[in-house]
Amino acid sequence: MAKRITAIILAAAIIALCLTACSDSGSDGGETQTNSAIIEQETVIREDNSTFKLSYTQADSLDPFEARTLNNQVLSQLVFESLFDLDENFKASLNIASSYEYEDNETLVVGITAGLKFTDGTALTADDVVSSFNGAKDSEYWGSSLDEIDSCRVRSESEVVFSLNAPDPYAHNLLVFPIKSSDSSGNYPIGSGRYYYADENGETVLKANTENGFQPHITVIHLENIASADSIDNAVNIGNISFAFRDLSSNSSRRITANKRLINMNNLVFIGVNNKSGITANADVRRAVSLAIDRATLTRSAYGGFAQASTGIFNPQFELSETQLFSEEGDADAAKQVLQTSGVSSNDISIVVNSSNSERVTCAKLIEQQLEEAGFDVTVYEESDAKYFDRITKEQFNLYIGEIKLPPDMSLRPFFESDGTAHYGIDTANSSSAAAYSAYMDGSGQLGDFLLKFSDEMPFIPLVYRRAMICFTKTMNGDVQGTYYDCFANIEDWYFEAE
């Protein structure tokens, strides 16, 4: 059935002529009155089963726990639902979950909405949630984001229990992994989402799941086998595909000429600092480095505006980021004053960066200039990936430019735990920041105490949070919205033509 958008047009539709008899001289007078009426004109948006196209990787799995490509992981957002949704500010709302409660600081109980069904008509149960968690935790794509959770078990038909590895007040933000039917015995994995995989004349397509009240204009989505990033960029530019998510990890994606909208990611670009040895073992030196850095320039020049300056530790969009710790602009004079009073005998400092990442190389060169204005003598080492990682893991650096995809609970444990992926250079056993962060997470300390300790110690230096974008063909209509965890947030409003 066609969808309808109603436009109201005001027009003069009825003209009434009123004759009035007057005067006893026999002369007649007439008065014309014009009344406005409303004519309703309907613009019809047809159901579209042929126009909308997405890229996918045919050689990769469509199972969200086995898929290795970003292409197919993006498709899974249409096919599978999660316990919680996250908006553009990383704020969680209930989806499949009906409730949640922290029974203690390491136990999270989640209720499951009753009556939910997968697209094959089978019931969505607590067992499906547990099996999906186990599949996600073991997967390459989702596994690292679930490190904070040890296990999941069924408590009842309507409740599951997540056991945490350590206290985490935002652990529910992690429950955005896809929920898949544990009995997907057919050719395609089964979810409860807005679309489902189907075969149409030998072609894999996505069909709208209208059984759950979802009523989009686009009823069938066709999949084009386009694997390489450059080919995807070109395809959306010329209209061979209708929509694409780009994480902007390569420069080519910035040359997209299709319509585009930036979306927030949780990828932090930072300076790793050797707190244990060399000039940067001095906390005043670390603070001087942070003061000298012009984060606004890095955002604009190194990342072409596809980033946000980090004025705090957490993502600027997240609710914990209200306290500003760093200025977007650098202050060379203030940095020089702190450096002069630091007591170090030499101002020599080095920056290690991997040569394969052009944005980080640009960052390093800009930071080199900014530090030299503050009185440092700077050497930049551009290393191959293997040499770069070797130097980082052996802590053979003063400073290094790194990037980490933080989990959606905003956990900083990768920096503050001895086995964390970004702990290099930080004395985690004796760090006052690490201790204050642990106290905040377990509820025995305050966030403000941690922020104060961090400002004093400066164990690492946040620079920018990168952003991604969604891009779409210029022939598509509708106020296209999307977030990192749901690129297709309002796909039901998208359409191509109207009558």
Please explain how this structure is put together:
The protein is of the alpha+beta class and 499 residues long. The protein contains 11 helices and 19 strands. It has helices spanning 70-79, 126-137, 229-238, 283-292, 295-302, 332-340, 358-373, 385-393, 413-416, 432-442, 447-457, and strands at 3-21, 28-45, 53-56, 84-86, 92-94, 97-104, 107-112, 149-156, 159-164, 195-200, 203-208, 220-225, 243-246, 259-273, 307-309, 348-354, 377-383, 399-405, 460-472. The strands form 5 sheets. Strands 13, 14, 15, 16, 17, 18 and 19 form a 7-stranded mixed beta sheet that branches. A hairpin with a 2-residue loop joins strand 8 (149-156) and strand 9 (159-164). Helix 10 runs antiparallel to helix 11. The chain is globular, with a radius of gyration of 29 Å.
